[in-house]
What we know:
The complex is a heterodimer of chains A (305) and B (251). Chain A contains ten helices and 14 strands. With 305 residues, chain A is an alpha/beta fold.
Amino acid sequence: MSIAIAVENVCKNYGTFRALDHVSLKxxxxxxxxxxxxxxxxxxxxxxxxxxxxxxxxxxxHVMGNxxxxxxxxxxxxxxxxxxxxxxxxxxxxxxxxxxQSGYYGLTDNSRWIDEIIVRLGLEDKAxxxxxxxxxxxxxxxxxxxxxxxKPPVIILDEPTAGVDVELRQSLWDFIQQLNREGxxxxxxxxxxxxxxxxxxxxxxxxxxxxxxxxxxxNLISTMAxxxxxxxxxxxxxxxxxxxxxxxxxxxxxxxxxIDSYTQIEPILAQLRQTGxxxxxxxxxxxxxEDVFVNMMNRSHFETQ
Amino acid sequence: xxxxxxLLYKELLRFWKVGFQTILAPVVSTLxxxxxxxxxxxGHVETYPGVPYTVFLVPGLVMMSVMQNAFANASxxxxxxxxxxxxxxxxxxxxxxWQIFLAYILASVARGLMVGLGVYLVGWLFFDVPYYWPGWIxxxxxxxxxxxxALGVIAGIWADKFDQLAAFQNFIxxxxxxxxxxxxxxxxxxxxxxxxxxxNPFFYMIDGFRYGFFGESDSSPYLSLVIVIACFAAISxxxxxxxxxxxxxxx
Lengths: 305, 251
């Protein structure tokens, strides 16, 4: 499998602030990859060094085998980037913008593909409207369209769903997933962990400019999260004392018990029956990316103290 | 080539769509100078023998408007794109640095020439402005507006805020323009000021441009052209170097 993005030992400082600290990362062609981390972790800086919007102080970045500075023309041709900031050119309409954007990539007759992305992103009614007159969500769609005009093999989306309504979010992801199935490599950052969990095969967790986890979604969840949560509502509403050591929380009158595997469920239920407790409601909570995320962030927090 | 032409087209459209403000307004304000100086100075001053002051003034005002608008176009386009953030679409594109630079300055040349032509046409309607060597006129107009366009690119990249750009314009561009002999022949100045004027590259632009109209100038037009082109080349190299290094554009 070929490498779509190769980041090797990249450092980037802004004054005394170290935004990226020896980051190395390989993203394979065809992957759906998520960069996660709290605000200020370095996600956008990393994306900017890949896109050539920021210049790394040391280390090297290649896109589809092209160095992003020495071979910038080839590298930029392979890349479509949706920046995080909502930016637009107020002098033009949506269609003018997309035609101009195509021209930058040397495409003179791109109207068929432009029509398609306009439809896929729900911009039909706005195609001849000036950018100034669009709502924030519509501007965001145009930015996605701009990143796609030249059908780049690698697409990077920096928080594309921030401030976007549910309907667009869904249709946007459908579109992006289709592009991924057609072979485009997708890299995204998002604060909606459930999005990353539903879409991506691999994630990198960044914190303070360093990658603190880099693995497939399943591996991360199975190795990092600690077991399952059994949530019970009981009558009488009182947890027998021998369970209090595995209790991890209370939630709307339910008791959350931590278990390591499914085989522990039956013994717990049996013991509750023996003590005459009636179970009124039961849920088994699977670990998710959020647990991993919180867990990892806390863990590295203690390590760095 | 398509990429370059597209950016050039975008830059042309940018000012053309607001032509009232970018072409008509500067023509009108330059003509106000002409009107005022005509009323106040006509008959009092004669710079070249046999050439009335207003006729002498028209080419200077034309060149001044060409220069100021070329500078304004590149600098305001650059700083607006930077501040609004839409410069990223150019920075993300595979356009080369020379292509970006040339698109910006050619659009500036186009706007400078349009405004200059507007001023000239009105001057030509009301005053008997001759033209001896149109070739010189075109060469100095193009080289001068290119030079100011390149300075505009530099100022637009350098300035973080609009007031810094205004400072660049008010403390560098306007003094150099007004002291370059737009309103007078430097031969009417005291010797020390004449020497200083010869250090001002803008002087050679105005002087050479005026030679195209009257066949007379303070300096040889060949020397002027060499100096203007040399300055143009040096400023262009600096501008492209700034674009290439990502100075204030790529963080």
